[in-house]
Specification:
The chain has about 110 residues and is mainly α. It is built from four helices and two strands, in the order αββααα. The chain has one domain. The chain binds FE2/S2 (inorganic) cluster. The site of FE2/S2 (inorganic) cluster has 11 residues, from loops.
Length: about 110
């Protein structure tokens, strides 16, 4: 898969990173489902709304945190890309909130 001597070893770029990278490339333009009740993690039967609520209420920044709270992502890991995208969107929203608040305080 990776050519020897290109500086990337199997230790640095493991299968999880590859799946997240490939999943991100393949799903970047794919919108999240309109129905929040749609299943995100089929292994544990957790829907998008639940994962979104867990991320927002607990300010999660890692997939492991989400898995510990609601078990999503604790099985086959094929849903990690979607969880990762929800985390990224939530972090962006939180950062935007704090930046707007800081801007209002300073001006
Ligand atoms: S679908 Fe989420 S861990 Fe398998």
């Amino acid at each position: 898969m990776l050519a020897a001597g290109n500086g990337l070893s199997a230790n640095v770029l493991n299968s999880f990173h590859l799946r997240v990278l490939l999943g991100t490339l393949c799903t970047r333009s794919r919108p999240l489902p309109q129905d929040p009740k749609a299943l995100l993690c089929h292994c544990h039967g957790v829907n998008y709304a639940t994962v979104q609520r867990v991320i927002d209420e607990n300010s999660c920044v890692a997939i492991d945190q989400v898995t510990r709270i609601c078990r999503a992502g604790g099985g086959c890991r094929s849903c990690h890309v979607e969880i990762y995208e929800l985390i990224q969107a939530s972090v962006a929203r939180r950062n935007g909130f704090w930046k707007r608040l800081w801007h209002r305080i300073r001006n």
